[in-house]
Amino acid sequence: MKATILSVGTELLFGQITNTNTVFLSQQLNLLGFDVMYHYTVGDNPKRLEKLIHMAFKDCDLIITTGGLGPTQDDLTKEIACRALGDEMRLHQPSMERLETYFKKQNRKMTENNKKQAYMPSRAIVFENHAGTAPGFALEQDGKHMICMPGPPREMTAMFQESVLPYLEKKSEGVIYYRMIRTFGIGESMLETKLLPLINEQTDPTLATYAKEGECCLRIASKRSTKEEARNAVDDMLKQVREIIGEYIYSADDEELVQVTAKKLMEQNLSLSSAESCTGGMFAAAVTSVSGISKIFDRSLVTYSNEAKMQELGVREETLKTCGAVSEETAREMAEGLFQITGSDICISVTGIAGPEGGSPEKPVGLVYVGAVYRGKTHCRKIQMRNVNRNWNRNYAVLSMLDLICKLVDEK
Amino acid sequence: MKATILSVGTELLFGQITNTNTVFLSQQLNLLGFDVMYHYTVGDNPKRLEKLIHMAFKDCDLIITTGGLGPTQDDLTKEIACRALGDEMRLHQPSMERLETYFKKQNRKMTENNKKQAYMPSRAIVFENHAGTAPGFALEQDGKHMICMPGPPREMTAMFQESVLPYLEKKSEGVIYYRMIRTFGIGESMLETKLLPLINEQTDPTLATYAKEGECCLRIASKRSTKEEARNAVDDMLKQVREIIGEYIYSADDEELVQVTAKKLMEQNLSLSSAESCTGGMFAAAVTSVSGISKIFDRSLVTYSNEAKMQELGVREETLKTCGAVSEETAREMAEGLFQITGSDICISVTGIAGPEGGSPEKPVGLVYVGAVYRGKTHCRKIQMRNVNRNWNRNYAVLSMLDLICKLVDEK
After folding, report:
1. Is any Cβ of chain B less than 8 angstroms from the Cβ of A392?
2. What mean pLDDT comes out for the span A24-48?
3. Which of A151, A330, B48, B232 has minimal CB crowding within 10 Å?
4. Are A391 and B289 in contact (CB under 8 A)?
């Protein structure tokens, strides 16, 4: 089925916000097997909105709109959609009751214009909004389908997952199931090359690679007549994928590396502290973004200057002079010095050249050493990054630290 | 003049990339005084592309396209645009020469399909591409204007600034000049309320407020017959704005607070170290994102656990017990302890409750204390944030630290 995504909102035409709804919906519709033909954006203008709806229905059988379902006069998506599909607006009692409850809970008085949000096309299937006040709906007429959702991304994505996805799965021929596999330590082209036999042989499940900041993702998707069949097909393929690139996979459920690492440590109750140089606190910032991490995370000593490295971690002046601040020896002494202070189960360290300045022929920008003390042994990894830019390099160094932690903990 | 922004590229319809070009162009066109009526996105499909061009020209006199100028068979924007405006393609010798030079420099052989990029509509004004191989162009016919630019954002924005902006300034009646004013410590609605007299009285310059993550921006824009007149009008208005909200303004040139702070410290050669709790390294990560900061930034002690606070910074057990880790006393002792160790010109500290857990009626989520030792005195600020979410709260705490540093350094 061919589809158009129609975004309504003058703020989009002013460039005040980025249209992330369209990205999300495009991904979802493609996964469901719909062909997305157009994205349209229009302001809060009834004439132009109506024109676009008629235009989209010339080529497409499905229009999904976001925005324009609010309580004010210029929120008109619902009324225009209703008219375009030859229906009329009527009070939708369950929506009215939900609205009343919502305002009672918030201890706010419901104004007249809020009631507008409880009016729906008479033939609509109404979708509840658990993150805001505007309900959404689906409306059909002569094989043409229209789905209207609220504009705020948080409300829209929640409504999509809960109500629109099941509705569309019924319209789509077959059911799609997919898993997003996340890898670290392998580039996109190498990943693709290694998986080429699987990619070329297969029409279902399909395999698609995506480059992310410093990592690579692989989507395995299958479309079958039942969800179970599709899931089995994906999981069988995942087994084959693991045989080829298993060592690089850190999640088969689209989790972040920092989440995976934190979960491992919290489950095994392993305490953690860090000594950072080039990452300048980014490792600690990433780890402490995980709620509840205070149970196992003790501290990070961000020793940016050489003096701080000596004073805080006991790195020897001799080492800094002869080997340099960016060296295996310094990384080891940082981790070992940290262990002397904190005694954490895992003491991780990092030193490197984030750039753009500070590189040399022997030690180019992008050179990083990661050290770790774990179970009485000091480990060290040398990494030469491809130097994209300062921020990318620093982020990659953080991922390398997390990756080393996972590998050590998994080794047993 | 009414305008449509038309994005060409199948990857957009798959949701593989976010359309940032449209955001950029919408902002720029609005600033130039154009009315953006629609955003359209279409795949690499000549029929549908042509349909959209004709549709857009029904309401609009200007279409700006991005994408589809590459060397391959399915890059067809140029040919379709040419046909739509009744022109024909011809070899554009200067573009051909630039292409040849480009490939010679890169030591690569130019293939036949690359030559396609040197063909242009015969009446086009050609825009050079200094960041890639595909030139752009403008084409006019009977008052209808079409501008075609390459899709990669880096190439597009460079070409826009260099060539398209001057071209459009001539089409727009008058010249626009604007400044983006950045503030911290005042909410958007309060900012608007305070400036309401100016906002209501004025038609030119115009004032518009924007909420950013934890801060607020104000755009002052003027459209006059010359750039100098517009600049003078904006600067006069800025003076009036400063009289009302001057204390909250940290940049009149759209700089980040961390950049402004780092510049101040580097110019005055003031050394800096930090002691972080709730921000978990985010302050140090922000400061060290500034290249060259190693000249003045010494270290950050991210003391997440109470033990680390005592061990690293000498916070007294008594203080933690009686006042708690999140208290003015702890913030003071953190900053003072840090000063004992580093002797940095500015020693800044932070402790707070980032949430979602850890709050209480007396100390709710979002409560933060920022401490600083500067010129022999300890300063402390208590901040109750409005608790948006963990990440927002942590970011706001970092901004509060930077803001305190700026205020102290400016006091003299």
Report:
1. no
2. 93
3. B232
4. yes
For helices B46-59 and A46-59, the axis angle rounded to 10 degrees is 160
Phi–psi pair at B175, nearest 5 degrees: -120, 140
Instruction: Check whether A45 has a pLDDT greater than 70.
Output: yes
Q: What is the C-alpha to C-alpha distance for residues A372 and A381, in angstroms, rounded to an integer?
A: 9
Interchain CB contact of B37 with A (< 8 Å): yes
Q: Which amino acid is at B361?
A: P
Q: Is the pTM of this model over 0.90?
A: no
* Chain-chain contact of A285 with B282 (C-beta, under 8 angstroms): yes
Residues 328-367 of B with CB under 8 A from A: 341-342, 355-357
d(CA B412, CA B396): 25
* Range scoring the smallest mean pLDDT among B86-95, B213-222, B361-370: B213-222
Q: What angle do CA A234, A237, A239 make, to 5 degrees?
A: 115
DSSP-derived secondary structure letter, A33 = T
Beta bridge partners of A210: A217
Cβ within 8 Å of B, A 292-331: 292, 294, 297-305, 307-308, 311-312
The average pLDDT across A86-90 equals 96
Mean pLDDT of B364-382: 97
Interface test with B, best of A5, A17, A65, A305 (most B CBs within 10 A): A305
Q: A-chain residues within 8 Å CB-CB of B3? A: none
Identify any residues that bridge with B383 across adjacent strands, giving them in sequence order.
B368
Identity of the amino acid at B194: K
Span A257-411: which CATH code? 3.90.950.20
What is the fold of A175-251?
Alpha-Beta Plaits (3.30.70)
- Residue of chain B whose alpha carbon sits nearest to that of A45: B37
Whether A168 and chain B come into contact, CB under 8 Å, resolves to no
The ranges assigned to domains in chain A are 2-171, 175-251, 257-411
The number of residues in chain A equals: 412
